[in-house]
Amino acid sequence: MKTRKQLEKSEGVELGRLARRTARRSFLRGAAACLAGLPLASGLPRETVYAGSKRSGGGLSAKTPGEVVGSRLVLANCHLIDGVSDEPRPDTGVIIEDGRIADLVTSRGVSVEKRARLIDCRGAWLLPGLWDAHVHLQFPDITPPKDLTARTIKYGANAIEGLREAGITGIRTAGVDNWIDVAWKRAFASKQYLGPRIFAGGYFITTTAGHGHGYIHTRECDGTEDFSRAVREQIQNGVDHIKLGLSGGIMGPPWDGNRQNALLPEEMDAVFRLCNQRDYKVMCHATNPLAVKEAIKRGAWSIEHGYILDDECIRLMLEKRTIFVPTLCVSHLSPSQVSNEWEKRFMEMWTRQIPPEFFARADAASKEHKKWFQAALKAGVRMAVGSDMGPLKDGALLEMGLWVSDGATPMQAIKAATSGAAEVCGTADELGTIEKGKIADLIVVRNNPLEDINNLRKLQMVFKDGDLVVEKPADRS
Fold first, then answer.
1. pLDDT per residue over 73-129, tens digit each?
2. Residues near 115 by Cβ (< 8 Å), separated by ≥ 6?
3. pLDDT per position as a tens digit, 26-65
4. Sheet of strand 281-286, all strands in order from the earlier edge strand to the far edge
5. What is the pLDDT of residues 238-262, one digit of tens each?
6. Statement: residue 164 has pLDDT above 50
7. 48-128+435-471 and 130-424 in the same fold
8. Segments making up each domain of the chain, as ranges
9. Is-above-0.90 flag for pTM?
10. 422 with 97: CB under 8 angstroms?
11. What's the CA gap between 371 and 327, in Å, rounded?
């Protein structure tokens, strides 16, 4: 007779097989049909105009339905934040061809060939698409639907909404059950459905009595054999990286605190040895100096949270070029710490999910977390924006606001949510910046986010692979 743990494990594996089978066949098509109001990425903006139209005598005119156009797109009259430079570029034109950045010119230097598409951005701000590098697609639900189909639909809707409402064009998942993130990654990559690029982590691997106990997205292991099997299962099911929990955290039982470590040295060794052998990056949940150092010395690609660090942690991150994803939201968002209308609105929803003792633990961790975030920022540690909050449409924007509140410049926060996040996902050579040859995942916002980081909320357009996939009604005020 199988034990309870064996039954849970076999059920999880079987559900994972179901998710993969249904994703390969018609399941996601049926799921997408249920996502009312979240259509495919198609169509062009009302503000798009074309060169050489007979109706305009060779000038500029609006597109009529069904008119066929070329693959060259020109975005003119932009203020450009490219994700690389420390200063914006005014009066810039961006030329996109076959889904990639073909050239950057001054708007006065824009030459629109016949049948090219032209979008006049009218002085709006053009940036790389935003990323969230620490995502659980079930959030804000602590307890998601029990039915696998319902969860798959809900997680996909969360991802789609993030792109449509906040311009989140890329995410890195940090714990998703049944490899639903892998299924949606493949669905979005097929271009049949509109959603962000997903760098999938599958299950969060932890120990019995480790952080994440009781969450549907965790895989509890004991001993080197069990950890090795978990890593191999993750690889077999199509993940891009391995998420490993080394220590406690804020949202957990009393025995799951920030200063408490969970893994034996030989268990850590087994995970890192296998990941190094198979060339998989390890995303490490580490919340205290010992856990952080143990992870970095074994080859961690990124440190998540880092609520408590020390000077040696900073030195090691610099030396090993480890990327730090601080997730300020976890320690900074509580009823006693809200500081603006967006945080207050989020907290009204979040307090219905989270018990008061977790908020008390966040409050206790916040000051120390801020101190080490500032130390890492000042030292020049590689960093990326990841919120560990949901829904996706809120997480990264809240996190970027907290970065600025804690001392980062708006430009530092923007770079961490674009080029920094693409770097932690291992795709900085293709995404995350607006440079010649890069894939054109872009957003346009109405007002200057360098004056107020919350101007990123004034989203006007989203481009993915050079196609305009979201356009918001123009505000002429």
1. 999 999 999 999 999 999 999 999 999 999 999 877 666 565 678 999 999 999 999
2. 50, 51, 52, 69, 70
3. 444 445 444 434 444 433 333 333 333 322 222 222 333 2
4. 218-221, 204-207, 241-245, 281-286, 302-305, 323-325
5. 999 999 999 999 998 889 999 999 9
6. yes
7. no
8. 48-128+435-471, 130-424
9. no
10. no
11. 14
Q: How far is CA 115 from CA 51, 67, 69, in A?
A: 6, 10, 6
Give CA angle at 205 (203, 211), nearest 5°.
Answer: 110
Beta-carbon contacts of 413 under 8 Å, excluding residues fewer than 6 positions away, are 385, 400, 403, 404, 453
Query: What single letter denotes the amino acid at residue 421?
Result: A
Q: Which residues, listed in sequence order, are joined to residue 173 by a DSSP beta bridge?
A: 135
pLDDT of the residue at 252: 87
Residue with tokens 């659980």: 136
Give the tokens for residue 369.
């977390």
48-128+435-471 CATH fold: Urease, subunit C; domain 1 (2.30.40)
The tokens of 434 are what?
A: 């607006």
- Residue (of 267, 257, 275) closest to 294 by Cα position: 267
Q: Into which CATH architecture does domain 130-424 fall? A: Alpha-Beta Barrel (3.20)
